[in-house]
Amino acid sequence: SGDPLVLGIETSCDETGVALVRGNDLLFDAVASSMDEHARYGGIIPEVASRAHLEAMVPTIERSLGEAGVSLDEVDAIAVTAGPGLVGPLTIGVSAAKSLAVALDKPLYGVNHVIGHAAVDQLVHGEFPERVMALVVSGGHSSLLLVDDVATSVTELGSTLDDAAGEAFDKVGRLLGLPYPGGPHIDRLAREGDPTAIRFPRGLTARKDQAEHAYDFSFSGLKTAVARWVETRQDAGEAFSLEDVAASFADAVADVLTAKTIAACQRHGVDTLVVGGGFSANSQLRDMAALRCAEAGIELRIPPIRYCTDNGAMIAALGSAVVRAGVAPSDLGIGVDSSMPL
Ligand code: KG4
Ligand code: ZN
Predict the structure, then answer these.
(1) pLDDT tens profile 40-97
(2) ipTM of the shown complex
(3) Which of 100, 211, 326, 330 has a Cα-to-Cα distance from 92 of 20 to 30 A?
(4) Which domains are delineated in the chain?
(5) Is 337 marked as binding a ligand?
(6) Where along the chain is Fe cation bound (predicted)?
């Protein structure tokens, strides 16, 4: 097609992602991860992630070009995550992107990582309709976005006031003695448990639509409630079902996420919901979203999990949309923004 060939670079956390996209066609997507190095610390160490990005960057670019069968001089534009994320890791990606832009004399587009999590769905399920709602949930973010145009008009309706959904799962995983990251382990246990066994608090639900935090999330109170519930049983030497705790906790998170998201869709007359971010792998969220979207007549779009976790395709997809929308390129003097707003 006549669409520009966009090279996307993602380094906001522990994944070095490089992908090539033309229009909404993904040519290749290469990812290198330093998660194995972080797992033993129980969290991401920014310095370790930065060094891993530095080492993986050129090989990952070369692998993406090689697998896609294109040469560097065919690239029409470079898109890179400028934020939000970890400053050191972001700097490695932005530096690489600037160098390419200068060397190739091609435009540079610094883009927003969170919007990228929504944009990647266009590579899988096609161009977005007029208006979509996007729920971006991961270890780092829980945001509800109203997307009128993924390239130029995205409004954040709400986000987490404290922990992200994945982060809450990881913290509960730690207190239940599960390995890091705890999210997938809780998911697995929860599938064997009774979600109605314990009624954990939902938090921020009773607000009216007009209320300030109508579409914001808060998971730290829920996490504390789980900790207290478990401690009380342990102190009393009482046995309890780990599966029931996991299922009841996961149910509370999925309930709040889906209830608020669907309320926002109805309030804004949106009938397409995109879910992205690594936490969209969560079974309880997937099941509840599928059920409640079907009831509400909302089309649910969730990309395959490899496009939900951090990757280069999401940045190339957003870059492609931005270039096609005719947005002006970024200045070559751009910095990074760890808490970049939309
Ligand atoms: O997007 P992602 O890969 O990394 C960033 O947050 O940047 O998301 C990973 C997060 C972790 O907190 C992980 O525990 C959580 O998503 N997660 C899950 C599941 N798979 C990943 N949480 C619950 N259930 C899962 N199946
Ligand atoms: Zn992410």
Answers:
(1) 888 889 999 999 999 999 999 999 999 999 999 999 999 999 999 999 999 999 999 9
(2) 0.97
(3) 326
(4) 5-120+311-324 (3.30.420.40), 130-304 (3.30.420.40)
(5) no
(6) 113, 117, 310
